[in-house]
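Standup notes
- DV: blocked on the single-chain target, sequence here:
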Amino acid sequence: MIRSIRKTSSCKEPALRKEAVLKRNRITAIYSKAKVCRPNHPHKCLMYEPGLINLFAKSRNYSELVWAWKGWRDAIGPKIRTDWERIIQIKNIGARENGYHDEGAYWRLNYELTDLQQVVNKLWDELRPFYLQLHSYVRYKLYQEYGTHVNLTGPIPANILGEIWAMSWLNIYDITKPYPNVNAFQVNKGMKEKNYTTHDLFVLADNFYQSIGLPAMPKTFWELSMFTRPKNRSVVCYASAWNLGHKTDVRVKMCAVVNANYLYTVHHEMGHCQYYLAYNEAQPPEFRAGANSGFHEAIGDTAALSVINPTHLKKLGILKEVDSNTKYQQNINFLLRRALEKVAFFPFALSLENWRWDVFSGKITDKNLNAGWWEKKLKYQGIKPPVPRSEHDFDPGSKYHVTSGTPYIRYFVAHILEFQFYESLCKLAGHKGDLHLCDFQGSKVAGKKFRDLLAMGSSKHWSDTLHKLTGSCRMEAGSTLRFFKPLRKWLEKENKRLGNKIGWD
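- DV (later): unblocked, structure below
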């Protein structure tokens, strides 16, 4: 408890702390106002949300995607690079004053492991063969769409993966769909047919958590949360959950609409709220936090895996039953869609944080920040910039978490843990068969174990908390691989049939 209160990496010199704050404010302001304007049309500009999000999701015009990709990076990177470099210097001064090798070492302290880098890289070694199969298949499909812009034996151009950072490939599902003539899961259509309202999404999530024995959301949650976009004021719509200090004052803030993405997001954010309620009640203030930074993100996604799957959606009447052959094809489509979102994310997160750890430690210096960034992108993701980049550029600055100084390995950890939690809860619920078809709704046995984990907060080492639910003290990639097992087999056969190269030159 004392250690959690005392740990810091702040500089002892007030002038340096003030300088770092001022520079951080300046570069985050540049980021928040960044926009990309059309050539010869200076008044036709796109900000990140919703303009660039929609463009990368929908456009299949290679040149337009290059323009937007480059424009976003040009609007931020060169303007913030010098200030960002100085912030790193100040952060390292503070870390060393407090007994750490560098700021990266201080960040890793959250995981209470002496070898976190080796742990996450080992997990990646287990996942990488599956990612290489996915990468090879996606590259082939993108070659069919974009022709010679894509080299069938090389890395994929970063601008054509459906998202401005190539973090999630979900938006190119239409290009990569294994069985194009089979409707995977028409969730939006099914929800519309059942006349769901936005409020219904939150009721569904609340009912799901209650069905496994977790508490109902308190009255204040329903009265004080922001569920939809207000009509009378401008707001930030990025979905988030909030713990307002009082034991039962938990809320969400989002601008939800009725679609499959928000059905997922609502269950995810309400998972945060369940975590808050559990450790607010069971723990003193010092231990009211996730067991480590990855736990909080994993909790809601664990529930969402149970909800956004064929079994649960059929229970809700959103999906209709189909014959066995169509069911297999639907399942492969479903798993590919999930892999574009989940599996593609692992190397993105690892490339970002390994780059930043190397910057903190001095392995990557101010002279090769951008080159070091693209070396990591090539090594882990197998992607390349669509246009030449130099040290005049600062492409890492195009990602908010780099600009704001937010640690990122938590998201890699969360993606590992959500499948580990999910498989354990499915076993407790008595599920048999393919893991991706498990729905643990209604299992009080699973819910009791889940609640015990949530109530522990950060009072124990996270490995003890993990053991409480899973029986293992270690993060393991096996659950992720078992979830995607049917897709892994399908990709191996398909890549072999097509003669696709695995990996990149």
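- Follow-up: The mean pLDDT is 93.
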